[in-house]
Amino acid sequence: MVTLAEVARHAGVSASTVSYVLSGKRSISLETRERVEASIQELGYHPNAGARALASSKSNIVALMMPLRSDMYVPVMMEIAIAVATTARTHGYDMLLLTGDEGASAVRRVTRSGLADAMILMDVELKDERLPLLRESDRPAVLIGLPADTTGHTCVDLDFVATGALCVEHLAGLGHRDIAVIGEAPAVYERHTGFAERTLDGLRARSRELGVRLLHRPCEGGYQAVAATLARVFDERPGTTGFIVQNESAVEPLLGLLRQQGRAVPEDVSVVAICPDQVALQASVRLTSVSIPAQEMGRQAVVRVIAKLAGQPEDEVALLTPELSARASSGPAPI
Q1: Which of 82, 81, 100, 89 is closest to 61 using CA atoms?
Q2: Class of domain 160-292
Q3: Residues 152, 74, 228, 223: what is their CA dihedral angle, to the nearest 10 degrees?
Q4: What is the pLDDT of residue 57?
């Protein structure tokens, strides 16, 4: 392994000069800096991360807090995580992934230990217990998701209120007046997870405005749970002709059960999903859907946390505009 001293000898400078070039703590002439950087490149020198952190009080690491729970759709979360990691790397930062359901204790561990220079939090709840600690900390942070009160926080998210409204508008425009929502698992609503609650707000508000009857039923996902939920929907609202699904695990079981019952999609029943494009396009019926822009959410979160590290501390809420793609699963309501 190439050492700092070897770089110094190769460049014809002192070891301290190489250190100053790496840390930026002192002004070094352009000629000397270029000579040192050329030696670093030629020799393939990589500064020791621990030593660099001690010298600069920086770790060059961004912590991503992504609790992995059984009631969440992990592929979307991992897509966000990959976008965070790759974007952070382009800015010279590595990612520390924290997947445990530790809540506030994980924030304390990062802030007190200096494990990371900044934090990005996912799975944000409306009354998230982690947020008071973030306000007290000097570590820059960005939320992927919206709490009830965004004051003092920088947030990036899909506009889930507008997403819910857009789904209702699409079905109402096709003449559907009885719409059922197959929602996330009950625990997601019990935690008051922001994206699920805000989608529901949008669904309900737009339904009232358009005179649509809306029925929302949480669902665990999986064949048996979806079968029970579907039976309950048709028992309570036999005239239901439109479904909005915000639960990726329920998509294929729902389509299969509708087929078994002799309900054709979209001739008898229309289905709209809030899901990644991959889920919509690979379903047994190509789904009309509002896409989850996972990569863009991860990328924008990193861009904003890097800006905070550079001394641009302005807090902001960045909501991505939802886009609905009409496909084979939605059509005019049956007469």
Answers
A1: 89
A2: alpha beta
A3: 170
A4: 61
| Mean pLDDT across the chain | 91
CATH topology (fold) of 4-56: 434 Repressor (Amino-terminal Domain) (1.10.260)
pLDDT at 24: 61
Structure tokens given for 161: 């209120």
Mean per-residue pLDDT, 135-160: 93
pLDDT in tens, 283-315: 999 999 999 999 999 999 999 999 999 887 677
Asked if residues 265 and 301 have their Cβ atoms less than 8 Å apart, the reply is no
Average pLDDT over residues 78-100: 93
